Amino acid sequence: MPVILFKPSQKTIDVSSGTELLDATHKAEVEIDSPCGGKGTCCQCIVRIIAGEVDSDSLGLLPKNAIDNGYLLACRTKVKNSHLTVEIPKRDEIKGGKFVEAEDDAFLVHQELLPEDVKLNPLTKRFKISVPEPQLEDGLADIDRLTRALQKEICEREIIYPLSIIRKIADIVRSESGNVTITAIEEKDRFNVVEVNSGDHTDQHHGIAIDIGTTTVAVQLIDLSTAKILSTRTDYNNQLICGLDVISRINYARKSERLEELRNRVLKTINNLIRQAAKNPQIKTDQICSAAISGNTTMIHLLLGLKPEYIRLEPYTPTILEVLNLKAGEIGIEINPEACVQISPAVGSYVGGDITAGLLCTDIANDSDEVNLFMDIGTNGELVIGNQDFLLACACSAGPAFEGGGIKCGMLAAFGAIEGIKIDRATGKASYWTIGNVKPKGICGSGIISLLANLFLTDWIDAAGKLNRQRKSPYIQIEDRQAKYIIASAEESSTDEPISLSEIEIENIIRAKAAIYSACSLMLKQVGLNFDDLANIYIAGGFGRFIDLEKATVIGLLPDLPLEKFKYIGNASLMGTYLVLISQEYRQRQLELAKRMTYMELSTDPSYMEQYTGALFLPHTDGFRFPSVQTMLKGEW
Amino acid sequence: MPVILFKPSQKTIDVSSGTELLDATHKAEVEIDSPCGGKGTCCQCIVRIIAGEVDSDSLGLLPKNAIDNGYLLACRTKVKNSHLTVEIPKRDEIKGGKFVEAEDDAFLVHQELLPEDVKLNPLTKRFKISVPEPQLEDGLADIDRLTRALQKEICEREIIYPLSIIRKIADIVRSESGNVTITAIEEKDRFNVVEVNSGDHTDQHHGIAIDIGTTTVAVQLIDLSTAKILSTRTDYNNQLICGLDVISRINYARKSERLEELRNRVLKTINNLIRQAAKNPQIKTDQICSAAISGNTTMIHLLLGLKPEYIRLEPYTPTILEVLNLKAGEIGIEINPEACVQISPAVGSYVGGDITAGLLCTDIANDSDEVNLFMDIGTNGELVIGNQDFLLACACSAGPAFEGGGIKCGMLAAFGAIEGIKIDRATGKASYWTIGNVKPKGICGSGIISLLANLFLTDWIDAAGKLNRQRKSPYIQIEDRQAKYIIASAEESSTDEPISLSEIEIENIIRAKAAIYSACSLMLKQVGLNFDDLANIYIAGGFGRFIDLEKATVIGLLPDLPLEKFKYIGNASLMGTYLVLISQEYRQRQLELAKRMTYMELSTDPSYMEQYTGALFLPHTDGFRFPSVQTMLKGEW
């Protein structure tokens, strides 16, 4: 078999001839960017063949002179029957892939933001019972005595024990005078035992809430005996390297070994985060006996190893919307393997469980005629509009910009992230503040919104997002005809490199906001409403600890409405997942919401492109839609 | 770490100092006999230290001169901090460990012997349904469409899918025009899907019945659409090398890694047999979607990896009697991992599921006042007496002799086994017949009974089982003061070695028959009955295709009663397991039988030893108990 030597890592691997080089890099664990998922459209997976022969089809995608110098796209290149030496060109360090340090990110869901009516009633419960000693006379096995004690003291239903519990029960009922802590799930007609410990451990009852975003994964460790959030951890989804959005991931997953790779990547992210979250309160991960997970339909398909292909192909039919009764061990979540995992139900291929979870944090579907809007601004933007009578959902593709993804100096809302910026109108100099009041490391979503709005209001960028090259400023640098704005110099930055935002990145952000705004207005148009008809607008997303709503209006991400109508609820998907974990009533409400919701396909509307193009300016081509922004631009602010 | 070199195999292994040498042999996969399970009582695991130092405590167990020559017991020897060279003395080939060839053993359960009232109604059923194509409009996922089709055509209950099925469903519902074969189990309130295939495979519905004996394991492949037995395979239990009886195995399992070893050994035997059984009708083992297993309580504990220790210790309490709801994949049975495994319920530590299975093949507990006896003659002998009003069970330890175990030339009832013998009164020469009419390879249980009875009736052995040394015969050989009887010469035998039975082996057989007979008469005594009060006696066991009942009476294994009262039902445990597999009514009957049965402890009866000692003769010290044998001995027969 041909052997490939990768430089500069010196890793080697044997592959059969015909193997795609991109697959070989993954197999050899050589890191390489392929944000489009190997479709040959992003031109990121560039490699150089130093020795050996390959079969490549990169012409037209890479310039001819690059190809002449041995550069190729790994996704368009197949190994032939010869040994290879392949160089992976040095590129900027992948910030998104780096693990966010444990202490960095306890910001995600604040208990104070949670609904007031939550009653602690988790699916999994803990009980203390006492099991009598074995007797020759009664002829009862260990399990029989435990069952009788449970049926007498707790629940008369049939008791179901998994094999792992049966294996350890003999010693447990014979220690601590037969005092036993049972963790179990009560169902209609049965009582499923999840864990058995000797002694009384009813106060050590933990669960984990997991939110799987396309870009960001967040977990939260919960004390299920008090509903207290013990710790929160976030990290970029380790799948990012295989494609930035769901469509790229679906494309990437077309080979079954790549589907398995994506599954393992997200599990790696999740299990790392769980270990980190359990480190500080020092909880053994195998004593976490309950879990709830939310994610969009593609993320859940990839987590479960379900072929996502049909999500992308007409008629866009996923394998499953409502997943029931899975155990952590089956999925690969490294907590107690018998733990029941509640997965938030999806509505369709493009409206997933993250939305049905997020809606739990709103009053959108409660007893009122008032029409409310829920906006979840993630890599996919999802919108839900409704009241007690109707619930409509739609989705649009925004990209990861508002989570700091796909932006060189972007980062998650963690220690060192610039979260707010002011611009000096005369000099263009930025003054900023960071999470944790430390030297800046990068910029998170709320900082990006703040930056863009202030650059626009101070006339350093125009309505098309172009930096003002007429006004001289040391903070605007032009290199290779590309302009970029310097937020912080190398000396100020904790990374010893300047923190900047390029015009191309600004374009990406404008495209993202345009997608979301135009989807909102199109959806309203389709139901015969205006923005003014909305009573409340709930905004969810991974921007940071807060979002400057006024500035979000300035860039035209949000409609120009009285600020009191907006409610920023942060990572609503994670918060809703928390609610599901601690309350069966919320779980029930979520299942009902999912059934009530109707999915609208926006892209089939003929005015879709028109709406989107109109929104590709700051704040919008139609100034009348943003009267207060016009006032700001004219006058003092 | 010390390195051990084993001779003559030249296998080497690293172990930490302090390791028991017996463990090291198993770890190095060096075959060594330890029938007592490492207790130091059988003195079989003899090794010789050629080089290096060990810590041994074999004195008193081995003669001093043996120890002086370097011989030790592996179970009494620990590795010190020095490299070792250890010789495993050559011993007779372990016949029991050899795999019985595929074609050899289709004899075990004859369909003609099955009860007449069996209605085909297996737990697992197959259905053909048609799943509509995906539609954009209905918003139904693949699983939703499948569920609706199932609920409409088959069963309105909640449908439960395991993750492995969810993973493959997308492609299945999109092929063969949506025609799908579902294998599923209907429960009270739910419908558990076990397998989904595309197309119509309702006629390919298979199950496997497994009987795990202490000595012998048997499996049977069943066509669940017709109840036809497709193939039967048997082999010695691969655990044999770790102890001949259940107590030795329990002792052996005291270390947790040895429990795991025992579990893996029996799984290896079972999975080998399943592959063999599936070879001839060419069935893919992962398409076997149903299983039923019977075994004594210890065998089931070992199969499931449950600590068997408490079975042996007062008050003899097992972990579990009735195991429900396990899947093949959890246990390690290599068929479809989602297949439900029905395990026969046990009554107590010494009356297991093999008995509740075996009773299904009898009328013992049916609507009659007549008292019947069920004898299962295996390594443990189990006895059940009862009628419509009572059911009493007891157990005794017999050893593996009647299955050919623990006897040099013993073998299972397979091709080449001597199953019947006549002895020339004058010369002592044996004439015999074998299964398959081929050259003899060894002797099975029925042959052993026939041989012993005929040697006794022709005066070649006495009532104590000693060979008659006064009468000269070339068929009696004496070596080292040990006498043995030559059944077949090396030339006659297919193994090129003579087939013989030694006096020590005869003693073992007499002890086995004495244990069984004395347990029978003690149990009858305890309920105030005599042998004459019995209407029917059902005899089960692994003797072979048949048992010569008259000869079994001659040696005093069976009581001296009119022959028409006896019914030989062969491997009743396997047959009962088959009944459970094909009929839920039989499964229900079995669960009820287990609940009705009462366990009697015989060993606490003060007359136990007296009964046993009296039975240690051919046929018995009390000749009046065997009047017809007396007649035979006096007169013509």
List keywords for this structure.
homodimer, 637 residues, alpha/beta, Ubiquitin-like (UB roll), Nucleotidyltransferase, domain 5, 5 domains, six-stranded mixed sheet, 17 helices, 29 strands, globular
What's the CATH first level of the largest domain in chain A? Alpha Beta
- Going by CATH, the architecture of the largest domain in chain A would be 2-Layer Sandwich
> Approximately how much beta-strand content do the residues of chain A carry?
15-25%
Helices and strands of chain A: which structural class? alpha/beta
- Unreliable sequence segments of chain A: 91-110
CATH topology of the largest domain in chain A: Nucleotidyltransferase, domain 5
User: Biggest sheet of chain A, in brief?
Assistant: 6 strands, mixed
Number of domain units of chain A:
5
Model description:
Two copies of one chain form a homodimer. Chain A has 637 residues and is of the alpha/beta class. Chain A has five domains: 3-87, Ubiquitin-like (UB roll) (Roll), CATH 3.10.20; 124-198, Roll (Ubiquitin-like (UB roll)), CATH 3.10.20; 206-351, Domain of unknown function (DUF4445) (Nucleotidyltransferase, domain 5, 2-Layer Sandwich); 354-400 and 510-634, Nucleotidyltransferase, domain 5 (2-Layer Sandwich), CATH 3.30.420; 414-499, no CATH class. In chain A, 27% of the residues lie in helices and 25% in strands. Chain A is built from 17 helices and 29 strands. Chain A has a six-stranded mixed sheet, with helices on both faces. In chain A, strands 28-27-18-19-20-29 form a six-stranded mixed sheet. In chain A, strand 10 and strand 11 form a beta hairpin. In chain A, helix 12 (503-526) packs across helix 16 (608-614) and helix 14 crosses helix 15. The radius of gyration of chain A is 27 Å and the shape is globular. Mean pLDDT of chain A is 89; it is low at 91-110. Chains A and B meet through helix 3, helix 4 and strand 29 of A and helix 3, helix 4 and strand 29 of B.
